[in-house]
Every structure is written in C-alpha cells, then in structure tokens.
Write a sequence for this structure.
C-alpha cells in the first residue's frame, strides 16, 4: 500500500514570496491533516479536512495560509506571502474515517526555509 | 483543553540499557494516547496507541507503554536500547470525539555504544 506522498521535499524561498505544497493521502482515507513542525517543537495542526470539507482550521494563519482539498483526495497548502517564521517542516497526514482511535499516517514532509 | 507534557528534551542511554521516555497527559475524560517516532528527515511513524482496551500497550520495535490513570501518565519503555532507536519521540493525545492529534514537544533519544 502506498503511503502519504508529499512534494517537494525541500524548498528555499525569499521572504514575501509565495510557495505551495502538495499532498496525496493514502487511497480511501477520508481525513487529511496539515501539520507545521518548527525546529525543536512538536507538530502543530494547521488544518484538518474530512473529505473536501474543513473540520478544523483554528490555528491556520488565514491572512497568509490557505489550503484546499479538491474532490476529497489531493490537497494543496499555500503560503503567500511567506515570513521568516514560516521556516518549518510541513507534514501531511491522513487517516480513515473511524474516530479518534484511528492511526494517522504521515508523509515525509516538506522542509521550507525562508531567507 | 487536552494536552501532553514530555519531561526531558533529551535522554541519553547506553546500548543495552533501559529506555524510559516520560509523558503526562491532561484530560478530564479518558483520552486516546499515542507514541510516534521520527527519524531524521522523515515523517512520523506510529509506535503504539492506547484506546482504553488495555492499560499495557505493546508496540513495534520492542517498545511498550503503560497507561496509569492515577498518575495521568503514559510513559514509553524498552528493556534494551539499540543504536537504531536513536530518534525523536513524540507523545500525542486525541481529544475524545475528535481525530486531530495534539503533540508534545518531543524527546530526543541518544544511544551511545
């Protein structure tokens, strides 16, 4: 079974530029998450989708971050404009639709460096 | 809000020694608890999870954790450390009724020969 796919693996941009990350979850997984992991910290949830609807985006900086999950499968996370403090690893995860007991499977992440 | 606290940002052990990584949770209702491992430049991999079925949970790679309600703890242990266990370990909690994971700050395990 293929895992969660993310691209690109690494990205370096200048501040005020825009960037987009892509995620393809495990086939059949209804729930998709985007997490931000700043160096030395645990992952923090940015947004959670259930199929193509947003369940939780309370910690998403909506003035600069946006995310979409078209057709309830792939997802894209965008930052525009980027700030230095956005430097982090962006992790995508997916899980099946069976409540909190269900394991979340993580991709390898995209490491963003803003200079 | 439910949360987890991991005591010790770094833990160093010798190869063959006992591994003990501490995690305490804050919750007014029985939570679902998880331990994940992260190797350098990799995503997170599930080690084990507690979902109220049994208090002693066995996971992959010889790890286990015990849920202690009286101590609000879910510490991760392994009897004998291997060099390959060197990684970052995260404790996480899922608020009952939701699916999102709330992570602790992580503990880096260092294993010396």
């Amino acid at each position: 079974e293929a895992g969660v796919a993310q691209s690109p693996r690494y990205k370096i941009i200048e501040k005020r530029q825009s960037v987009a990350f892509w995620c393809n979850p495990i086939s059949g997984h209804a729930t998709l998450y985007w997490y931000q992991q700043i160096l030395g910290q645990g992952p923090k949830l940015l947004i959670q989708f259930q199929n193509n609807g947003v369940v939780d985006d309370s910690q998403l900086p909506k003035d600069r971050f946006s995310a979409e999950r078209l057709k309830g499968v792939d997802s894209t996370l965008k930052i525009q404009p980027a700030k230095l403090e956005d430097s982090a690893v962006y992790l995508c995860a997916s899980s099946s639709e069976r409540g909190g007991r269900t394991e979340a499977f993580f991709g390898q992440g995209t490491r963003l460096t803003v200079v | 809000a439910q949360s987890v606290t991991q005591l010790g940002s770094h833990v160093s052990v010798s190869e063959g020694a006992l591994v003990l990584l501490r995690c305490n949770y804050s919750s007014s209702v029985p939570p679902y608890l998880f331990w994940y491992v992260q190797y350098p430049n990799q995503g997170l991999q599930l080690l084990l999870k507690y979902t109220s079925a049994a208090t002693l949970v066995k996971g992959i790679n010889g790890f286990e954790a015990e849920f202690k309600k009286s101590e609000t703890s879910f510490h991760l242990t392994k009897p004998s450390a291997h060099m390959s266990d060197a990684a970052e370990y995260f404790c996480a909690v899922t608020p009952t009724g939701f699916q999102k994971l709330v992570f602790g700050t992580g503990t880096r395990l260092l294993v010396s020969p």
User: Anything to note?
Assistant: The mean pLDDT of chain A is 92. The first strand of chain A starts at residue 5 and ends at 7.
